[in-house]
């Protein structure tokens, strides 16, 4: 028998939460590939199952716990199977996860992935493995991630880790630790490799990209964005997420200067009420936010603007809620992620404020926000009818094999007849129809 075939083990990895977690799963896969693990998409054939988890809202954690219950049945058929919990929930709950669920063998926080090979050795001897130490320096800068998304068109590139903002409701600073920026040279190297592999789009990731700073040569986020944009005339560049308090004129200038920097700004408002914003410790006002939006639109009239909204935060009155609805209309968001406030243990809000908005009020307010956003999303797309957009093709439409889908620079999804086009092509599409979620059109030859 061939020795290498004995050594190769199979890794199944499932990812929850934000794009940072998707990017981290790629780092984990790279670390474990060096240890002779091969990626599989079938948990039943895995030797190691890893769940990369999210703690942002209570329901994110409940989902993971349910999923672990389903996955543990595979241990019946494979006595050697090990199960590990990674990511934010691992960091938040730590070794208590092992008490709650004895089928879990391994608990590893977001800054401890380099320790995985060692921990797996411990685990193979039948002991549990835990490392949830947060770091002030770790950025995994030297690790070339194994891309798990098979489309080979767009990739995430992590540019920093952690968050120093301490928004009152948010668990991220506790699960991801202090903010630290990654060496720009290693970021540019990673993007160059992606270009060589034929990728057409990168998204630069951080919890608050505007506070990116590489102190050795004072590279700030606009500098970094510009350096990435200069690498190729056919590489689209996106980034996420901007914090409204830190978005600078310099960033707006760099975005306007390069066609390849996508004309979408994701600027989470959270609430339209100054009272709520203050209690949330967001450090901007409704007025300063609206000023940033007009500066962005003035410099880039074609820009789309998207946001995150939390409804039912501690003490939110009906007037505060109306302020949010009004602000949404005033900005005319093209897209939004909308959530009910979920109290997270250990946060400032959990310690200092009562979670006093009844569940049914949170639900009603969320529904009103969603209904308004559906209307705004539809209006945003209706404006595009008759216009021509450059679309980067991401793959086949889920509904029809005769159609392809891709995105505009504004991050709107477009579906159109495939003709001779293929994934990764840029194509000019004339928009003829839309729903609130999708544009429809046909390619111009
Ligand atoms: N760093 C990003 C957001 C990361 S979390 C930023 O500051 O914009 C993504 C979104 O989840 C947040 O923008 C917020 O809208 C939502 N969120 C965070 N904590 C939450 C909580 N406790 N309850 C409900 N939604 C929350
Ligand atoms: Fe959380 Fe605020 Fe940091 Fe975003 S900026 S990750 S909402 S603490
Ligand atoms: Fe969730 Fe952690 Fe991201 S809490 S949203 S996976 S940073």
Descriptive overview:
With 445 residues, the protein is α/β, with parallel strands linked by helices. It has helices spanning 3-7, 19-33, 58-71, 74-77, 87-93, 96-100, 116-124, 172-176, 184-196, 221-229, 249-257, 274-280, 286-299, 318-331, 348-352, 359-382, and strands at 9-15, 37-39, 48-53, 82-86, 106-108, 129-131, 154-158, 160-161, 180-181, 201-205, 213-214, 219-220, 236-240, 264-266, 304-311, 335-340, 388-396, 403-407, 413-417, 426-434, 439-443. The strands form six sheets. The protein has a six-stranded parallel sheet, with helices on both faces. A five-stranded mixed beta barrel has the order 17-18-19-21-20. A three-stranded parallel sheet has the order 7-10-13. Helix 10 runs parallel beside helix 11 and helix 14 (318-331) packs parallel to helix 16 (359-382). The longest helix is centred in the C-terminal third of the chain and has 24 residues, at 359-382. It is globular and about 65 Å long. It binds S-adenosyl-L-homocysteine (SAH), iron/sulfur cluster (SF4) and FE3-S4 cluster (F3S). FE3-S4 cluster binds at residues 17-18, 20-21, 54-56, 87-88, 171-172, 175-176. S-adenosyl-L-homocysteine is lined by residues 56-57, 169-170, 172, 207-208, 241, 243, 268, 270, 308, 310, 339, 341-342, 344.
